[in-house]
Design brief:
Layout: H1 2-13, E1 28-30, H2 48-54, H3 74-81, E2 88-95, E3 98-109, E4 112-120, E5 125-131, H4 141-148, E6 157-159, H5 165-173, E7 180-188, H6 195-199, H7 206-215, E8 217-220, E9 241-247, E10 250-256, H8 270-276, E11 281-286, E12 304-311, E13 319-327, E14 342-344, H9 347-364, H10 368-396, H11 404-409, H12 416-439, H13 461-468, H14 472-475, E15 494-496, H15 508-515, E16 521-523, H16 555-571, H17 585-594
Parallel strand pairs: 7-10, 7-11, 11-12, 15-16
Antiparallel strand pairs: 1-13, 2-3, 2-6, 3-4, 4-5, 8-9, 9-10, 12-13, 13-14
Helix pairs in contact: 5-10, 12-16
Biased composition (Polar residues): 458-470, 570-588
GO molecular function, one term: GTPase activator activity
GO biological process, one term: regulation of small GTPase mediated signal transduction
Length: 595
């Protein structure tokens, strides 16, 4: 109501009318065309000159008239300077600034060495390049972090060893990069002073149509495949047409007030307001000189307005007068208005206007409301990135658990340590199976189950159970089914024979050595004519002998255990019978056949 009274007072005074009037209680600023152009504040990068150098090319940040998009180039720095190049990534846990992610890259330019650094915290990303000339040695990682941020303490960095870590980091850096925009376009007639009047306009004059054709292309919404900006492209609930364009690799959809559905009897025209009122930036087209107050439209999202007033429309001498207003917590944004802020109709004005709209939205994200939301989002994403890099690094080293999906991606291995653990579990289960099966075997049995293959020891079954497998835990076990399926032909069986046929009770060292015989070695009878034959006891008069069948399926674990067995065998060769290991092509083929 206060702004409405102000507008009526201004209109009663007659022309000339100001293009924008500030609300009585403030809260907004108006860009002064006579003020000197300041440094854009919507970019945090210290390498603005690089962005400007690239802007001259097609698709670059700057167009043919030199109007530069003020996007945060730090968000794209990792992709530009690090991704696909030799560099190192580190993560830090529990510093005074929380979790940190750092990237380092050595560069050499014209014979001079540099160190490019990116340090990510919960609040911001620091990007810099320091020369190494004059330094006696390369500084440590914590020292490098202190160079960028003096007040950080408690630094303890760990290298990122996950092969796909760079993809996770670049996704985090570019989470704030926006390549799609939606802007409101409001048509204001002379003397209109309320949002009900603005959203109630239902006709497009030739001057307004000329302005829309300069912004972009008139497209049919039905089955539209580009960026739709929240409009319905399937059922026509948001109108049949809209204005769309692609500008410097960015898609823009305009919410034109006169093209959105008009509802008879609805004073507020909620079908129109719910789209334009949820935009962050809007362009207001004034066909005649008339004042506009930024709080005329009640919205929690609209933070900036670009007002365009047509002069001599639909002629060869059409010009546009431009004014800019935004909420007081929105920083200034470019390109600056010329003095006077009047443009001729043509491609230069189009480039200026679209650049101004995009920069306005990027600047609005730094206002208090959006900055708090972005801060919470960034902090959560950084913590998730830190935890994922730590988890995947530990999994790569075989020190942490990984999910089934990670196992499929990494080939099912959890590192050498995990392979060794799996092999030991296989051996333990197989030993328990053999002992349990032998305990329940009849005393007069003449053979062994078909699942137990290998050779025999020259002891009776009672002696074998007592002397070789004395631990009460194992002997008390009930028969277990081996969890390892037989796989024929993967690994040949290695057979060993004892030289002394006489019975003896092995000493404690013999018993210990017998427990660490490698899984791929099996004991066989020296009288066996066919070392690979599945028949264990061809002589029925022989006493029942026990054998061990252990089958491994992890080649690295087999090599590892064979190495350990060789070392253990050399230390215990005086306390146990000599074991000979032989592997021939005949055994390999016969082992595959009978497996």
């Amino acid at each position: 109501p206060t702004s409405l009274c102000t507008l009526h007072i201004v209109l009663e005074k007659g022309s000339p009318y100001p293009q924008v009037i500030l609300p009585q209680f403030g809260g907004y600023w108006i860009e002064d065309a006579e003020a000197p152009a300041g440094t854009p504040t919507s970019s945090d990068s210290s390498f603005c000159e690089e962005e400007e150098a690239e802007s001259s090319g097609p698709g670059g940040e700057g167009g043919g008239f030199g109007y530069r998009l003020e996007s945060n180039s730090t968000a794209r720095a990792y992709r530009k300077h690090f991704l696909g190049r030799e560099h190192m990534n580190y993560y830090c846990t529990g510093s005074s600034l929380g979790n940190l992610i750092m990237s380092l890259k050595h560069e050499e330019v014209e014979g001079q060495e540099f160190l490019r650094i990116m340090l990510r915290s919960k609040t911001k990303t620091l990007h810099d390049r320091i020369p190494l000339e004059g330094l006696p040695q390369l500084p440590s990682v914590p020292q490098i972090a202190k160079l960028l941020c003096d007040d950080v303490t408690g630094l303890k960095f760990n290298p990122v060893l996950y092969p796909r870590g760079s993809q996770l980091i670049v996704s985090f850096d570019e989470h704030e990069v926006n390549n799609t925009f939606k802007f409101g376009v409001i048509y204001q007639k002379f003397g209109q002073t309320s949002e009900e009047e603005l959203f109630g306009n239902n006709e497009e004059t030739s001057a307004f149509a000329e302005f829309l054709s300069m912004l972009g292309d008139n497209i049919e919404l039905q089955d539209f495949k580009g960026f739709r900006g929240g409009l319905d492209v399937s059922h026509g609930q948001t109108g049949s047409q809209s204005v769309y364009t692609v500008f410097r690799n960015r898609e823009i959809m305009f919410h034109v007030s006169t093209k959105l559905p008009f509802t008879e009897g609805d004073v507020q025209q909620l079908q129109r307001k719910r789209h334009i009122g949820n935009d962050i930036v809007a362009a207001v087209f004034q066909e005649e000189p008339t004042p506009f107050v930024p709080d005329m439209i009640a919205s929690n999202f609209l933070h900036a307005y670009v007002l365009v007033q047509a002069e001599n429309p639909c002629t060869d001498h059409t010009t546009y007068k431009v004014s800019v207003t935004a909420r007081e917590d929105v920083p200034p944004f470019g390109p600056p208005l010329p003095n006077p802020a009047v443009f001729k109709k043509g491609p230069e004005f189009r480039e200026f206007l679209l650049t101004k709209l995009i920069n306005a939205e990027n600047a609005c994200y730094k206002s208090d409301k959006f900055a708090k939301l972005e801060g919470r989002t960034r902090a959560a994403l950084l913590d998730n990135l830190h935890d994922e890099l730590h988890r995947q690094t530990q999994a790569t080293l075989g020190l942490g658990s990984i999910t089934d999906e990670d196992k499929l991606e990494n080939g099912g291995h959890g590192g050498l340590l995990e392979s060794f653990k799996r092999a030991m579990r296989v051996r333990s289960h197989s030993m328990e199976t053999m002992v349990g099966s032998h305990k329940h075997k009849p005393a007069g049995g003449g053979g062994v189950p078909s699942s137990v293959s290998g050779g025999v020891l020259p002891q009776s079954s009672t002696e074998c159970t007592k002397s070789t497998f004395t631990p009460p835990v194992l002997s008390a076990k009930s028969p277990l089914k081996s969890p390892v399926k037989r796989r024929s032909g993967l690994f040949p069986r290695l057979h060993s024979s004892t030289e002394s046929p006489t019975e003896r009770h092995p000493s404690r060292s013999d018993q210990k050595t017998a427990d660490i015989i490698p899984h791929s070695q099996e004991v066989r009878s020296e009288t066996s004519s066919n070392p690979s034959s599945p028949e264990i006891c061809p002589n029925k008069e022989r006493s029942v002998n026990c054998g061990v069948s252990l089958l491994l399926y992890d080649s690295p674990a087999v090599e590892f255990l064979q190495t350990c067995s060789t070392a253990q065998h050399s230390t215990a060769q005086h306390s146990q019978p000599e074991v000979s290991v032989e592997l021939t092509s005949k055994q390999v083929h016969s082992g595959r056949a009978c497996g």
